[in-house]
Design brief:
This protein is of the alpha+beta class and 190 residues long. 48% of the residues lie in helices and 18% in strands. It folds into two domains: 10-106, Alpha-Beta Plaits (2-Layer Sandwich), CATH 3.30.70.100; 120-182, no CATH class. It has helices spanning 23-38, 68-75, 78-88, 120-145, 151-177, 179-182, and strands spanning 10-18, 43-49, 58-65, 91-101.
Length: 190
């Protein structure tokens, strides 16, 4: 199956402040919302980052979808709108929402208030540093086991394993490890 560049994998990052004292009720609504999202085709998962400051209870919710069109179906659904209406009376202000596609979704830190991707050259450097050893380890382990398969099928399996490891294991750790360089606090840093 060929990927459609106009319908890429998508991550939506939502920041919402909850009224003090409404956290428990918001948790119930959030559970309903995330369970409803799981029933939609293309939903790849959700991460919820709960408040660290009880005086300013701010939640960060990150949804991942296989395609932008899947996210749009979820966003336009009646069930989502129902859950959001329930959440409105429990929250302060409007929610901050950002939609990301492509490699930018690899470079997210859970404690950041918004996702602002680092410069592309930095993403390229970190991706190369991570992908080279990962690919070589995969080849070392898998190639002897897959020798009976056609080269094209071996390549497909290695690619799926590489991208899965990069997305769920390697890049989150690399992003944390290189956070100071990827997200410098002062503009004078490279």
């Amino acid at each position: 199956m060929i990927s459609n560049p106009n319908d890429p994998p998508t991550t939506v990052d939502i920041i919402q402040e909850v009224k003090p004292g409404c956290e428990e009720a918001f948790e119930d609504v959030l559970l309903g919302l995330t369970e409803a999202a799981k029933t939609f085709d293309g939903h790849l998962g959700v991460n919820v980052f709960r408040p660290t400051d009880s005086t300013h209870p701010e939640y960060r919710i990150v949804f991942k979808f296989d395609h932008l069109s899947s996210l749009q179906r979820w966003e336009n659904s009646a069930i989502r709108k129902t859950w959001l209406q329930r959440a409105e009376k429990l929250t302060v202000g409007s929610r901050k929402m950002q939609v990301l596609t492509g490699l930018e979704t690899w470079f997210t830190l859970p404690n950041r208030s918004a996702i602002v991707p680092p410069p592309r050259y930095k993403m390229l450097v970190i991706t190369c540093i991570a992908a080279f050893p990962t690919l070589n380890i995969i080849n070392f382990i898998l190639q002897p086991l897959l020798v009976i398969l056609s080269p094209l099928l071996r390549s497909l399996i290695a690619t799926v394993v590489l991208l899965s490891l990069m997305t769920y294991v390697v890049m989150p750790r690399m992003t944390k490890l290189f956070a100071g360089w990827l997200y410098p606090t002062s503009k004078g840093k490279l």
